[in-house]
């Protein structure tokens, strides 16, 4: 939907936001007088926080439950519901799992506990309230795609109020959920033939199409949508950027933001590795003897599938994830880095940021040494042969064990981004010359989402430097609003000029001299 089409429907929009009975038009809404939005297939009633004037809709169903015959298929529209749905509770999380044998998994499920299940295709929307209705002018919209290695996390971990505050009430915020693990990324030839590959990516695509159709009802501009994610959320963003060879119609977003990109080896759906994964799922669900193994998996007990999901992921190599996107020859026609290099992309602009020690938590520090480099490469890339392994040994053999570990932790050249990417952290006043930088994977997330929580309600510590925090966070919302991070929301912030990427300057550095994650 174009911005003009959305503006033409403002009258319809206002008619679909109803004050609760007993409240005269113009009466300020309270939590008891929340708006009701009519989506055609269902009506949803949200809540208003009168202390912040932010309206929240939690758990809006954007697709039918992917159960029974819809398991391992492309998402379908929701069924009609006649009664008003209360959008006041966090939705079910999609089934979760953990990565390989990491002793501490940075992408494990977090503190905000909600039920898990297959019926999890929901999104949550927050927008700043104008008087008693949605914003009178359509606002740019940010769609956050959560990370978690394609097997964990949920929308409940991220509060869109943070983005609204950082944008000075200038955006609508959406957080989506999508199928994870075996439920969203079951690979293999049989799935290609009798189901749908990359169902989790298609869930994301379906959610973006929902946004394109309905976001005007919540005050969002469908022509100014930004997709943003971290880790596997960023991997998802890049999959959407290259989807359909960059020829997606209609275009579903204008900008893309990538934070801490997770882009592991992406095999073709019928490669040896995906086929082995599929066979393992079939074996663990007692579907080996079935004439149609996909049909058997559709009727398998969900607990058996979830157990297989947990077992197969946990048995993976240290710090790796096994159920990930594949090249399916339809939605994803080739590895994303090839499409990016060829300019086969959706959207108009990309903002990218990485941390210095992205790979620190994903490298087994007790076994990573130069003598083991060839073997390590074979474990990470099981399709490698002796020639490739020897090449790795030659590349890293001259490093001391300390520098080998440091190289893996900083650049994570083996696993986390095995394809070359261009990082673009921001430059600000450097600190002392003897202070090494030490931002790790995920440590930037609390700057976008200060309310972000980890296990047991513990939050990440952020810099005790308001000027730094404001400058950093507002870069991203500025980009979402104006296509340019240099157009400041707050003209007093210390943000320096962030130039467009150039082959002569492949990155800018934010706090290049840093110790203990404290800006100096």
UniProtKB/TrEMBL annotation:
Uppermost EC category: hydrolase
EC number: 3.1.1.-
GO molecular function, one term: hydrolase activity
Domain of life according to the entry: Eukaryota
Keywords: Hydrolase
Every Carboxylesterase type B domain range: 35-370
InterPro entries recorded: AB_hydrolase_fold, CarbesteraseB, Carboxylesterase_B_AS, Carboxylesterase_B_CS, Type-B_Carboxylest/Lipase
Keyword RNA-binding: no
Similarity-based family: Belongs to the type-B carboxylesterase/lipase family.
Protein name according to UniProt: Carboxylic ester hydrolase
Lineage of the organism: Eukaryota, Fungi, Dikarya, Basidiomycota, Agaricomycotina
């Amino acid at each position: 939907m174009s911005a003009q089409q959305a503006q033409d429907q403002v009258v319809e929009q206002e008619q679909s936001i109803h004050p609760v009975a007993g409240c005269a038009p113009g009466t300020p809404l309270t939590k008891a007088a929340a708006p009701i939005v009519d989506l055609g297939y269902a009506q949803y009633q949200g809540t208003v926080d009168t202390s912040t004037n932010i309206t929240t809709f939690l758990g809006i169903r954007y697709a039918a439950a992917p159960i029974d015959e819809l398991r391992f298929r492309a998402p379908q529209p929701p069924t009609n519901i006649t009664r008003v749905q209360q959008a006041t509770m966090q939705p079910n999380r999609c089934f979760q799992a953990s990565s390989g044998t990491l002793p501490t998994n940075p992408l494990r499920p977090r503190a905000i506990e909600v039920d898990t299940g297959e019926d999890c295709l929901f999104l949550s929307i927050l927008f700043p309230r104008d008087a008693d209705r949605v914003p009178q002018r359509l606002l740019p919209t940010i769609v956050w795609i959560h990370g978690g290695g394609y097997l964990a996390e949920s929308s409940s971990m991220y509060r869109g109020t943070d983005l609204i505050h950082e944008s000075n009430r200038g955006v609508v915020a959406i957080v989506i959920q999508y199928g994870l693990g075996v439920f969203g990324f079951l690979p293999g030839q049989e799935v290609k033939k009798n189901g749908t590959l990359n169902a989790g990516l298609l869930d994301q695509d379906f959610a973006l199409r929902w946004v394109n159709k309905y976001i005007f009802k919540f005050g969002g501009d469908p022509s100014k949508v930004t997709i943003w994610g971290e880790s596997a959320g960023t991997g998802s963003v890049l999959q959407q950027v290259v989807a359909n060879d960059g020829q997606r119609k209609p275009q579903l977003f204008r900008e893309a933001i990538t934070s801490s990109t997770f882009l592991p080896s992406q095999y073709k759906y019928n490669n040896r590795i995906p086929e082995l994964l599929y066979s393992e799922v079939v074996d663990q669900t007692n579907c080996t003897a079935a004439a149609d193994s996909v049909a058997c998996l559709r009727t398998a007990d969900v607990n058996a599938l979830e157990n297989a999901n947990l077992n197969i992921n946990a048995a993976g190599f240290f710090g790796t994830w096994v159920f990930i996107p594949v090249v399916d020859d339809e939605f994803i026609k080739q590895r994303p880095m090839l499409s990016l290099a060829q300019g086969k992309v959706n959207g108009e602009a990309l903002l990218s940021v990485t941390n210095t020690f992205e790979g620190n938590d994903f490298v087994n520090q007790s076994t990573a040494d130069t003598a083991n480099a060839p073997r390590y490469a074979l474990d990470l890339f099981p399709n490698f042969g002796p020639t490739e392994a020897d090449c790795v040994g030659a590349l890293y053999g001259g490093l001391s064990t300390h520098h080998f570990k440091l190289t893996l932790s900083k650049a994570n050249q083996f696993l986390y981004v095995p394809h070359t990417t261009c990082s673009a952290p921001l430059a600000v006043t450097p600190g002392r010359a003897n202070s090494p930088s030490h931002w790790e994977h995920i440590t930037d997330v609390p700057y976008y989402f200060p309310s972000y929580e980890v296990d047991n309600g513990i939050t990440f510590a952020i810099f005790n430097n308001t000027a730094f925090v404001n400058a950093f966070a507002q870069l991203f919302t500025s980009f979402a609003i104006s296509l340019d991070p240099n157009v400041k929301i707050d003209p007093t912030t210390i943000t320096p000029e962030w130039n467009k990427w150039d082959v002569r300057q492949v990155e800018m550095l934010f706090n290049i001299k840093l110790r203990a994650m404290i800006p100096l």
